[in-house]
Amino acid sequence: MNAKTLLDKFVKQSLTQDLKTSDYPKDWSGFGLRVSFGMGMPARVPWIAFLAPEMSVSNGYYPVYLYYKDLNTLVLSYGVSETNESLETWPMDITNNLETIKAYFDTSIPRYGDSYVFKVYEVKVNKEVEYINKKDGKSITEKDIESDLEQILDYYQQVTAFESYNPKSTIGQGIFYMEKQLEDFIIQNWANTDLGKKYDLIIEEGVNVSQQYKTDIGPIDILAKDKVNGSHVVIELKKNQTSDDTIGQIARYMGWVQEEMNDQDVKGIIIAKEYDKKLNYALKRVSDIEVYIYEVDFRLKEFKV
Known about the structure:
This protein is of the alpha+beta class. About 30% of the residues lie in helices and about 25% in strands.
């Protein structure tokens, strides 16, 4: 099944009372695929979502087709969950530069107005389904649809660090699970890490408050203190962000610590899977941020009875 075949099937079913999704693929290009036509009754905005393993439609961000049936419009969007507000979202080059669906339509819409517009197609349904580019009025080809979907999925793959493993393999899923649990692992094994040799976790009334340290501009992944001079260290994990976003985020938290905790010697540490070129260039101009690289090591040992 190619992208146009998937969309044709989806659009035609959206115009019926049939809410079943069992005959749709469960994955697409390595991502989970979820389809909804509504629960109990047809939805005004049925959707197709593409999910990285750590995401769900109720909590996360993901590429999604949203079919606004009343407007005969299909939007391929940078979707965000409206059920639960996720702590993670699309990078700033999306959230700062693209229109929300609400802003695009500039009228009352049923749902999903906070998602960001990538492509918009006018939909015409006769015997066949025709998709028309809203910008120039030209018919969208099968190749165009395929290209648009590949483009947004490739971007999603990059920002979720999803390129580093095969999601269908047991080992790949293990690597990703360890990435998502990296923060807990660091805290639990603090004394045995290079960080633990130089910095102390913050304990208040017998409670470790370093992890997800609360501030009024968001939680710091880990806030620690230098063993020698007592200055603060802001530690951020680059799990699913671009390098630019990570630098901006850690600089913001360091500024908060400097201002609110009166610490002029605050420093930052980024923990990343790899040291990419963008991160390298950015850090040439920032002297008080270091980078630690983490590795995942699998070992096999024969079991002998």
